[in-house]
Amino acid sequence: MKALFYGPGWAPGKPRTGLLSDIPPVDIHAPIERYDCEISFWESFYVMLHSFIIAMGFYIITDHPLVRNSPLNAMIIMFYVLFALTSFGTIFDRRSIGPLVESSRCLLFFPFDSYVMQPWIEQLTPPMHLHGFIDYMLGLIRLIHIVSITVWLILWFRNARRNPKAFKAELLLASDNKSTLLKEDKCISAFAYSNNINVINQRRPWAIALYAVTMVISLTFMFFIFALRFDHCNNIFKTSNNIEL
Protein backbone atom coordinates (compact mmCIF):
# COMPACT_ATOMS: atom_id res chain seq x y z
CA MET A 1 0.00 0.00 0.00
CA LYS A 2 2.91 2.35 0.65
CA ALA A 3 3.88 2.02 -2.99
CA LEU A 4 0.56 3.72 -3.84
CA PHE A 5 0.51 6.54 -1.28
CA TYR A 6 4.20 7.23 -0.62
CA GLY A 7 6.53 9.07 -2.95
CA PRO A 8 9.39 7.57 -4.94
CA GLY A 9 12.56 6.98 -2.97
CA TRP A 10 10.71 6.67 0.33
CA ALA A 11 12.31 4.66 3.12
CA PRO A 12 11.77 4.52 6.90
CA GLY A 13 12.87 7.82 8.44
CA LYS A 14 12.34 9.84 5.25
CA PRO A 15 9.47 12.20 4.34
CA ARG A 16 6.32 10.64 2.97
CA THR A 17 7.01 12.14 -0.44
CA GLY A 18 10.49 10.60 -0.48
CA LEU A 19 13.80 12.17 -1.44
CA LEU A 20 14.42 12.58 -5.14
CA SER A 21 18.14 12.88 -4.43
CA ASP A 22 18.16 9.23 -3.35
CA ILE A 23 16.78 8.04 -6.67
CA PRO A 24 19.64 7.01 -8.98
CA PRO A 25 19.66 8.52 -12.48
CA VAL A 26 18.32 6.31 -15.24
CA ASP A 27 20.44 5.68 -18.31
CA ILE A 28 17.94 5.50 -21.16
CA HIS A 29 20.57 3.91 -23.40
CA ALA A 30 21.37 1.10 -20.98
CA PRO A 31 19.82 -2.30 -21.74
CA ILE A 32 16.64 -3.04 -19.83
CA GLU A 33 17.14 -5.50 -16.99
CA ARG A 34 14.64 -8.22 -17.75
CA TYR A 35 12.94 -9.95 -14.83
CA ASP A 36 14.21 -13.48 -15.17
CA CYS A 37 13.89 -15.34 -11.89
CA GLU A 38 16.35 -18.16 -11.45
CA ILE A 39 14.98 -21.20 -9.68
CA SER A 40 16.23 -24.75 -9.54
CA PHE A 41 14.88 -27.49 -11.76
CA TRP A 42 12.98 -29.26 -8.99
CA GLU A 43 11.24 -26.01 -8.00
CA SER A 44 10.26 -25.31 -11.60
CA PHE A 45 8.98 -28.86 -12.03
CA TYR A 46 7.14 -28.62 -8.70
CA VAL A 47 5.30 -25.46 -9.75
CA MET A 48 4.40 -27.00 -13.11
CA LEU A 49 3.04 -30.16 -11.45
CA HIS A 50 0.92 -28.34 -8.88
CA SER A 51 -0.31 -25.85 -11.48
CA PHE A 52 -1.57 -28.76 -13.55
CA ILE A 53 -3.29 -30.31 -10.51
CA ILE A 54 -5.00 -27.00 -9.67
CA ALA A 55 -6.07 -26.39 -13.27
CA MET A 56 -7.43 -29.92 -13.58
CA GLY A 57 -9.29 -29.71 -10.26
CA PHE A 58 -10.70 -26.27 -11.06
CA TYR A 59 -12.07 -27.51 -14.37
CA ILE A 60 -13.63 -30.59 -12.77
CA ILE A 61 -15.40 -28.85 -9.89
CA THR A 62 -16.89 -26.01 -11.92
CA ASP A 63 -19.93 -28.24 -12.36
CA HIS A 64 -20.02 -29.25 -8.69
CA PRO A 65 -23.40 -28.45 -7.03
CA LEU A 66 -21.63 -26.93 -4.02
CA VAL A 67 -19.91 -24.46 -6.36
CA ARG A 68 -22.58 -23.95 -9.01
CA ASN A 69 -25.36 -23.19 -6.50
CA SER A 70 -23.35 -21.21 -3.96
CA PRO A 71 -21.63 -17.90 -4.76
CA LEU A 72 -19.80 -18.13 -1.43
CA ASN A 73 -18.24 -21.50 -2.26
CA ALA A 74 -17.34 -20.25 -5.73
CA MET A 75 -15.64 -17.26 -4.10
CA ILE A 76 -13.71 -19.60 -1.78
CA ILE A 77 -12.49 -21.59 -4.78
CA MET A 78 -11.39 -18.41 -6.54
CA PHE A 79 -9.51 -17.23 -3.46
CA TYR A 80 -7.78 -20.61 -3.24
CA VAL A 81 -6.63 -20.31 -6.84
CA LEU A 82 -5.38 -16.76 -6.24
CA PHE A 83 -3.61 -17.90 -3.08
CA ALA A 84 -1.97 -20.71 -5.05
CA LEU A 85 -0.71 -18.24 -7.66
CA THR A 86 0.60 -15.99 -4.89
CA SER A 87 2.35 -18.95 -3.28
CA PHE A 88 3.99 -19.90 -6.56
CA GLY A 89 5.08 -16.27 -6.88
CA THR A 90 6.89 -16.44 -3.54
CA ILE A 91 8.78 -19.48 -4.85
CA PHE A 92 9.79 -17.69 -8.05
CA ASP A 93 10.70 -14.52 -6.13
CA ARG A 94 12.64 -16.65 -3.63
CA ARG A 95 10.99 -15.07 -0.62
CA SER A 96 12.02 -16.32 2.80
CA ILE A 97 8.36 -17.04 3.60
CA GLY A 98 7.97 -19.11 0.42
CA PRO A 99 8.27 -22.54 2.10
CA LEU A 100 5.82 -21.58 4.86
CA VAL A 101 3.27 -20.12 2.44
CA GLU A 102 3.43 -23.13 0.12
CA SER A 103 3.12 -25.64 2.97
CA SER A 104 0.06 -23.70 4.19
CA ARG A 105 -1.47 -23.91 0.72
CA CYS A 106 -0.90 -27.66 0.62
CA LEU A 107 -2.55 -27.98 4.04
CA LEU A 108 -5.60 -26.10 2.77
CA PHE A 109 -6.00 -28.74 0.07
CA PHE A 110 -7.19 -31.35 2.58
CA PRO A 111 -10.24 -29.41 3.91
CA PHE A 112 -11.04 -28.65 0.28
CA ASP A 113 -10.67 -32.34 -0.56
CA SER A 114 -12.99 -33.52 2.22
CA TYR A 115 -15.58 -30.74 1.75
CA VAL A 116 -15.76 -30.55 -2.06
CA MET A 117 -13.89 -33.34 -3.81
CA GLN A 118 -15.00 -36.32 -1.71
CA PRO A 119 -18.76 -35.55 -1.90
CA TRP A 120 -18.37 -34.96 -5.63
CA ILE A 121 -16.64 -38.32 -6.10
CA GLU A 122 -19.38 -40.09 -4.14
CA GLN A 123 -22.04 -38.62 -6.45
CA LEU A 124 -20.22 -39.63 -9.62
CA THR A 125 -21.48 -42.52 -11.73
CA PRO A 126 -18.54 -43.24 -14.04
CA PRO A 127 -18.06 -46.56 -15.86
CA MET A 128 -16.95 -49.36 -13.56
CA HIS A 129 -13.48 -49.65 -15.09
CA LEU A 130 -12.84 -45.96 -14.25
CA HIS A 131 -13.58 -46.24 -10.51
CA GLY A 132 -10.14 -47.65 -9.76
CA PHE A 133 -8.45 -45.04 -11.94
CA ILE A 134 -10.22 -42.16 -10.16
CA ASP A 135 -9.39 -43.55 -6.70
CA TYR A 136 -5.77 -44.04 -7.73
CA MET A 137 -5.43 -40.49 -9.05
CA LEU A 138 -6.99 -38.95 -5.94
CA GLY A 139 -4.68 -41.00 -3.73
CA LEU A 140 -1.69 -39.88 -5.79
CA ILE A 141 -2.71 -36.21 -5.53
CA ARG A 142 -3.09 -36.51 -1.75
CA LEU A 143 0.31 -38.18 -1.49
CA ILE A 144 1.88 -35.39 -3.56
CA HIS A 145 0.49 -32.78 -1.17
CA ILE A 146 1.68 -34.69 1.91
CA VAL A 147 5.19 -35.01 0.49
CA SER A 148 5.13 -31.33 -0.51
CA ILE A 149 4.20 -30.24 3.02
CA THR A 150 7.03 -32.32 4.46
CA VAL A 151 9.63 -30.98 2.02
CA TRP A 152 8.67 -27.32 2.45
CA LEU A 153 8.55 -27.53 6.25
CA ILE A 154 12.01 -29.13 6.27
CA LEU A 155 13.31 -26.31 4.06
CA TRP A 156 11.67 -23.69 6.24
CA PHE A 157 13.08 -25.09 9.51
CA ARG A 158 16.52 -25.47 7.94
CA ASN A 159 16.57 -21.89 6.63
CA ALA A 160 15.16 -20.49 9.88
CA ARG A 161 18.14 -21.87 11.80
CA ARG A 162 20.72 -20.30 9.49
CA ASN A 163 22.17 -16.80 9.43
CA PRO A 164 21.01 -14.88 6.33
CA LYS A 165 23.99 -12.50 6.47
CA ALA A 166 26.44 -15.38 6.25
CA PHE A 167 24.65 -16.77 3.21
CA LYS A 168 24.62 -13.33 1.59
CA ALA A 169 28.38 -12.98 2.07
CA GLU A 170 29.01 -16.42 0.60
CA LEU A 171 26.77 -15.73 -2.37
CA LEU A 172 28.36 -12.36 -3.09
CA LEU A 173 31.75 -14.05 -3.32
CA ALA A 174 30.51 -16.56 -5.88
CA SER A 175 27.99 -14.50 -7.85
CA ASP A 176 28.65 -12.54 -11.03
CA ASN A 177 25.65 -10.24 -10.52
CA LYS A 178 26.74 -8.48 -7.31
CA SER A 179 24.91 -5.23 -8.11
CA THR A 180 21.55 -6.98 -8.04
CA LEU A 181 22.34 -8.87 -4.86
CA LEU A 182 23.43 -5.72 -3.04
CA LYS A 183 20.07 -4.05 -3.55
CA GLU A 184 17.74 -3.86 -0.58
CA ASP A 185 15.28 -6.30 -2.11
CA LYS A 186 12.90 -8.55 -0.24
CA CYS A 187 13.68 -11.28 -2.74
CA ILE A 188 17.19 -11.59 -1.28
CA SER A 189 16.57 -13.98 1.57
CA ALA A 190 17.88 -17.06 3.29
CA PHE A 191 15.67 -19.11 1.00
CA ALA A 192 17.56 -17.75 -2.01
CA TYR A 193 20.99 -18.09 -0.44
CA SER A 194 20.56 -21.69 0.58
CA ASN A 195 19.62 -22.71 -2.96
CA ASN A 196 22.69 -21.08 -4.60
CA ILE A 197 20.93 -19.09 -7.29
CA ASN A 198 24.20 -18.46 -9.12
CA VAL A 199 24.50 -22.06 -10.35
CA ILE A 200 20.90 -23.14 -10.88
CA ASN A 201 18.51 -23.16 -13.80
CA GLN A 202 20.90 -24.94 -16.13
CA ARG A 203 19.08 -26.48 -19.07
CA ARG A 204 20.20 -30.10 -19.07
CA PRO A 205 18.92 -32.53 -21.73
CA TRP A 206 17.33 -34.84 -19.16
CA ALA A 207 15.50 -31.87 -17.62
CA ILE A 208 14.09 -30.82 -20.99
CA ALA A 209 13.06 -34.42 -21.69
CA LEU A 210 11.30 -34.65 -18.32
CA TYR A 211 9.45 -31.41 -19.02
CA ALA A 212 8.31 -32.76 -22.39
CA VAL A 213 7.14 -36.10 -20.96
CA THR A 214 5.26 -34.35 -18.16
CA MET A 215 3.53 -32.04 -20.63
CA VAL A 216 2.44 -34.99 -22.80
CA ILE A 217 1.06 -36.86 -19.77
CA SER A 218 -0.71 -33.72 -18.53
CA LEU A 219 -2.34 -33.07 -21.89
CA THR A 220 -3.43 -36.72 -22.07
CA PHE A 221 -5.13 -36.50 -18.68
CA MET A 222 -6.77 -33.24 -19.66
CA PHE A 223 -8.17 -34.90 -22.79
CA PHE A 224 -9.69 -37.70 -20.70
CA ILE A 225 -11.23 -35.14 -18.33
CA PHE A 226 -12.65 -33.08 -21.18
CA ALA A 227 -14.10 -36.24 -22.75
CA LEU A 228 -15.80 -37.23 -19.50
CA ARG A 229 -17.44 -33.81 -19.28
CA PHE A 230 -19.19 -34.05 -22.65
CA ASP A 231 -22.06 -36.43 -23.31
CA HIS A 232 -21.15 -37.16 -26.90
CA CYS A 233 -17.70 -38.37 -25.80
CA ASN A 234 -18.84 -40.57 -22.91
CA ASN A 235 -19.58 -43.53 -25.17
CA ILE A 236 -15.89 -44.32 -25.64
CA PHE A 237 -15.53 -44.75 -21.86
CA LYS A 238 -18.48 -47.08 -21.29
CA THR A 239 -16.64 -50.32 -21.96
CA SER A 240 -13.12 -51.34 -21.09
CA ASN A 241 -12.74 -52.79 -24.60
CA ASN A 242 -12.76 -49.35 -26.17
CA ILE A 243 -10.11 -47.66 -24.07
CA GLU A 244 -7.79 -48.67 -21.29
CA LEU A 245 -6.76 -46.10 -18.71
TrEMBL record:
Limits of the Alkylglycerol monooxygenase C-terminal domain: 45-122
Necessary cofactors: Fe cation
Topology of the protein relative to the lipid bilayer: Multi-pass membrane protein
Cellular component terms (Gene Ontology): endoplasmic reticulum membrane
One MF term in the entry's GO annotations: glyceryl-ether monooxygenase activity
Pfam families (alphabetical): AGMP_C
InterPro entries hit by this protein: AGMP_C, Sterol_desaturase/TMEM195
Localisation: Endoplasmic reticulum membrane
Domain of life: Eukaryota
Keywords assigned: Endoplasmic reticulum, Iron, Membrane, Oxidoreductase, Transmembrane, Transmembrane helix
Any single biological process term in GO: membrane lipid metabolic process
Parts of the chain that traverse the membrane: 44-62, 74-92, 133-157, 208-228
Protein's UniProt name: Alkylglycerol monooxygenase C-terminal domain-containing protein
Record organism: Dermatophagoides farinae
Lineage, top ranks: Eukaryota, Metazoa, Ecdysozoa, Arthropoda, Chelicerata
